[in-house]
Amino acid sequence: MNRATAKLLIERYFRQLTEGCGNGNCTNEFCASCCDFQPLDNNSAAAKALELFKINAKLCDYHPSITASADGRTREGSEMSDKDPGFTKEDFSEVHHLTENTVCTILSFCEEEGDYSALVRVIGRVFSNAEALMKSFRKDESNSTDNLESCKPADMKKDEKLSERSSEKTGASSAASLPGEALNEVFDACEVTVDIGAVRRVYDRLLSIDQLQVALVNALIYLTPNVELDLEYLDVYETNPDYLNIFIIVMENTNLHSPEYLEVALPQFCKAMSKLPVIALARLTKLWSKYDLPHIRRMMETFQQLITFTVVSNEYDGENLVNDDETVVAATQCLQVVFFASILGGDVDVEHNEEDEEDSDSDELTLHELLGEERLYKKGPRINPLEKELGVRPMDSIKPLIPFEDFINESLNDVIEMDKDFTFFKVNAETKFSFQTCPFILSVITKNQGLYYDNRIRMYSERRLTALFSMVQGQQPNPYLKLKVRRDHIIDDALVRLEMISMENPSDLKKQLYVEFEGEQGVDEGGVSKEFFQLVLEEIFNPDIGMFTYENDTKLFWFNSSSLETEAQYTLIGIVLGLAIYNNCILDVHFPMVVYRKLMGKKGTYLDLSDSHPVLYQSLKGVLEYMGNVEEDMMMTFQISHTDLFGNPVIHDLKEQGDQIPVTKENRQEFVDVYADYILNKSVERQFKAFKKGFLMVTNESPLKYLFRPEEVELLICGSRKLDFEALEKTTEYDGGYSKDSQVIKDFWEVVHSFGEDQKKLFLQFTTGSDRAPVGGLGKLKMIIAKNGSDTDRLPTSHTCFNALLLPEYSSKEKLRERLLKAITYAKGFGML
């Protein structure tokens, strides 16, 4: 237990000994509210509090007295007043938990008296007491809504009748519009005892009364510290799972995002909720996944607003990290529950998973373990405890209720120190919180920084190990993954070298890549590698080789099921994709999304055909939607045919004796599923297995699978297709005497902005070695334009390793345009300047 928590507990014991809990019927002998308690002075109470803390004595729930004055302000006390001058009939002091009927009765009484003090006091008492709130609004108590209807204003009744008519006309069936009994049936599967419909109806009335707003805020402030301590030290949820009711009821408050909650009440509530055990968070997730979109979005926006409010209200730096801000951390952990609820409530496919090949664990100590670095190089991605409990992963989501992008908090991303966060993620996970454990809140740019640190540390580690081995064995150290290739035989040379490395020492693939073109003087600081990747891809995706088929409509490649190439060729392209991510290079690859889903462990399904094989997808969709007699009108069987590499027809039975099984209305879904499975999985199993093997040779120990979704992996490999040259101009730096106000620079940007799309790609290829924008767009590309002499007929040159353009000071814009176009159009090869 840390010092702050111990101090808080001792203070609670002290208050209990000096002020009491406010419960006139208290039986706790260590509470001032107990009738048998002997009063203590402050010094004696302080000593007694320390003694009670040591023996972990019983703590009472606090029962505050909250009364509202005529102007809506509240005053608080430690004891309930039995007699209040504002009441002539009842004081409702016997109400120890709430039902919908109880609230209606008190509300009717208050409206008749024209004074809400009684209701304010009851709400304050119940909502500040964990046991009282836990017992409130139970399904097993009769909650007739007659009283509620009678206490509603006339205009509200009228609006609801109109709303009901509208719902009937439109056939609305969302959870929000269901009557109480039907709403409870929706949530019964989650095994909660709260009548959520009743809670929502009560909140609708309470939140329309200004005096009650303050009472709810104050009650939550009293409630949450006690709940947090109970969960952390008393394991109350294990004793009584209904303790979850407290969080369900509080989260139904639609005003939690308002300013009066953001400073104290909501941060404390999030800290308490983050202390719930994983099994309770899973129950909460399943319940919220049944909610309709407006309710779950409201909860998401509540937690997001708290994170943003806290971040912009504080200043963070290398010493004061956002990772140490308890409010931000707790709100992020609460937001994770909503994130998984959004996934569960949407379209999910928890089946169709590829079988991963498990590495055999050796009993021998690795060198990393001998050096004490095993924590940095754990194999395989870590498992999120909530994800494991729910049995669902983000990559299982087909379409979530709320788009993934809405969970990213830009304000938070701006203040995260990613180098420190990475250290917490890899080394200090038990003691420090890392936002990489909740990757849904991070942008691709931020996660890419974390991946960059992981890759670089692995590279440096391999370099150290190589140096150590070379010292022991007396050999020349080889700290890089060196590839020496001929331009005219680039595939053969790369294939032979990479195949030897993958068989002899696969860990060498995790060294920093260093490419040398035979007969050329270029030194690889990144630019030569970029060209190597480009040339390998051009060769491998050449239709004449026949490794991949090309779809003209989609402009995408797919594995050729009848290819004559060896598996080693497919392993090579897998290694190339892995090396591109590992060495932070952008590739011009055109794969459908299903390829990245399969790389991340999912199988291709019918829905994946929409972008990989759109014509086939539309045909199968027509079969599923056909209203007539499928068997007689379409006359299809479970036998299909397609053409091979040479245009010859290939017959395949989707089931045994498929030609004897007609497709009918009853089995058409099965026909579509097995057809898609054959096209996307079985027919290319040999080719894809080799391709994935190569990819995993480089990335198997990377957090790639844990941090990124398939669409984000595509962005890492291919970069952004959107080329925003305005953003590039704003971030470009100048050297050698140039500035943004130099005439030649002004002419240069006018020329570049006038280029067509293809010419802009050529310019990027010439200057950076890739025609794609990096993750985050061209604004993230640090380009340098340096002066390269006065007016001359020489062409512009570039250092692609450093994204540097060497531009002579041409005498006119026309000459600059002509020289630049010639340079970018005919550029090929590397030399020494």
What is this structure's SSE topology?
Elements: H1 3-18, H2 42-55, E1 65-68, E2 74-77, H3 100-113, H4 117-127, H5 130-134, H6 146-150, H7 154-170, H8 180-188, H9 196-206, H10 210-234, H11 236-239, H12 245-251, H13 259-262, H14 265-273, H15 278-288, H16 293-312, H17 326-345, E3 347-348, H18 367-370, H19 385-390, E4 397-399, H20 410-415, H21 418-426, H22 444-473, E5 480-485, H23 490-504, E6 512-517, H24 527-540, E7 548-551, E8 556-559, H25 567-582, H26 593-599, H27 609-612, H28 614-625, H29 630-634, E9 639-643, E10 649-653, H30 668-682, H31 685-699, H32 704-707, H33 710-718, H34 725-731, E11 733-735, H35 743-754, H36 757-768, E12 784-787, E13 797-799, E14 804-807, H37 813-826
Helix pairs in contact: 1-2, 4-10, 10-14, 14-17, 15-17, 16-17, 21-22, 23-25, 24-25, 25-31, 26-33, 36-37
Explain what this protein looks like in three dimensions:
- This protein is an alpha/beta fold and 833 residues long.
- Among the domains are: 53 residues, no CATH class; 110 residues, no CATH class; 130 residues, no CATH class; 107 residues, 2-Layer Sandwich (Hect, E3 ligase catalytic fold), CATH 3.30.2410.
- Helix content is 50%, strand content 7%.
- The protein contains 37 helices and 14 strands.
- The protein has a four-stranded mixed β-sheet with strand order 11-12-14-13, with helices on one face. Strands 1-2 form a two-stranded antiparallel sheet.
- Helix 21 crosses helix 22 and helix 23 crosses helix 25.
- The longest helix has 30 residues.
